[in-house]
Design brief:
Blueprint (H helix, E strand, L loop, with lengths): L36 H34 L3 H5 L11 H7 L13 H6 L7 H42 L12 H5 L3
Length: 184
């Protein structure tokens, strides 16, 4: 004998209310008021690009540090040209013009670090290079953290402006002027 199935009764319940996330609602900031919406977006994009570059440099410094600490001859033979074409001043100087630079830490001289040879048999020279690479990695990490704070502040400013005027979001979309002015 087969058990009899009873039809399930569907009970419709209203959606559960959203739990507060505990995040503060972003407010516009006086430090960004001089920037138009397009300039603020461009500033945030430039910060993000700079953060990607700094993260790359930091990974390269960490790799070179690992090689130097291991005492490998691979250092001068294969890693020397990694940063030769990249200059660390191009993006940063553009960012300095947008907001004050009081919170930006000094950048290490990456070119000098790459020009310095690590002689595996010279203990004091290798220790000095290791210390300098460690210091450069710490400086890059601090600079990266500062960039993250600025990216966060620019993002909060964008969110605050969008909350105040939701229609501003539409100008970020690739719409024609007719599509933007159409009623929603």
């Amino acid at each position: 004998m087969e058990p009899q199935s009873t039809p399930l009764k569907v009970v419709e319940q209203p959606p559960a209310p959203r739990r507060p996330t505990g995040r503060p609602v972003p407010q516009t900031s006086p430090e960004h008021l001089h920037l138009s919406l397009d300039a603020l977006r461009a500033y945030r994009t430039a910060l993000t690009a700079e953060e990607h570059q700094v993260s790359y440099w930091r990974r390269i410094i960490q790799a070179r540090l690992d090689v130097v600490q291991a005492g490998s001859a691979l250092d001068s033979a294969h890693l020397r040209g990694v940063l030769v074409g990249a200059r660390h001043t191009t993006g940063r100087t553009a960012l300095l013009e947008v907001l004050p630079v009081d919170d930006l830490p000094p950048m290490p001289d990456l070119a000098e670090l790459w020009d310095r040879r690590a002689v595996t048999t010279d203990g004091p020279a290798r220790r000095a290079l290791t210390a300098d690479l460690e210091q450069a990695e710490a400086q890059l990490s601090h600079y990266r953290s500062t960039l993250h704070a600025r990216i966060g502040a620019a993002t909060a400013e964008l969110i605050a402006r969008y909350r105040e005027s939701p229609g501003l979001c539409l100008c970020a979309l690739p719409l024609t002027s007719e599509q933007r002015s159409a009623p929603v």
